[in-house]
Amino acid sequence: MRLTRHAPVKRWYAEDLIEFKESAQKGLGVFAKTNIPRGTRVISENALLEIDIKTVTLNSIVPAFEHLPPSQQKSYLELYGYAGELFKHFVEYETGKSWQELPEVHRKVLAIYAANAFGYVFFLGSRINHSCIPNVNFAYNPILREEVFHVIRDIVAGEELTVMYIDGTNLTQGQRQNELSRYGFQCTCPACEDTVQGRQRERKRAELAILDQELAATADDGTNESYRKRLQVVQKMSAIQKSEGLLNRQLRFVYYEAAKCCLKLKEQTMAYLWIEKIMEVDLYCVGKDHPEYRKMLTIAEVIRRAVSVPEPISEGTVEWFMKD
Ligand SMILES: [Zn+2]
Q: What's the CATH architecture for 11-165?
């Protein structure tokens, strides 16, 4: 858990490109005012409440809120809250009190957390609704010390901006819905809809889920055989993710794995091609000012030289790349 900062609030959004308004079924949402090309940064802000949803205990949310300066408390309370039965049950279990026994303001703070925290709670970014095929990626930029939200495919005027609240690229619909239950809604995004197209998409997601398990089961044991096997699996995963429009940073993970395998197999030209793909994803998902993109630029340069000479890449360089 990172402690809540008291640095000045930084909050910026591309006013000429996006607007915040009511959506048909999902309350407030964020919409494109005009066509927006892939890679555009639309929001950059620091978090209102920095308690990671993966490590949070419900007892820590109210104290974290009370620790905020009054202006940030006011911003926080402007967000929409929703507490589902499951969430209330967790709260009751942890606090030892019934939901109704809790002070009203505590219920409100908790309900806002439940409805808005993906990663952390953001004043602007938390208003973006969820989709299992999102068109926006969010990531922390440690140099800016802000969360940046980038459009990851070209979107047209009027289209709703969406992010994936969960790490759900390689999960089936049932698994995704299970994870989403803490937000208290049933997902009706194009990947979850009960139509011919929706079911086709779901078959691809099920394939991804199986491949993801295969990858986990294929140990990286230092043999060429294991690297070949892992490479095959991630190649299939990247092809499905791309064809299904799953273009967020999970795609980077499989490209990264592919590049690692090629380096271990001493297939430097192929490694270079995968690194170019990583850089493409970084460029549109997080931007040129992100340290991971800068690191990739340096690595790409080392490998490009090794390919053109050709000379072997030192073990040190390979190990440096392997370090995530
Ligand atoms: Zn969905």
A: Beta Complex (2.170)
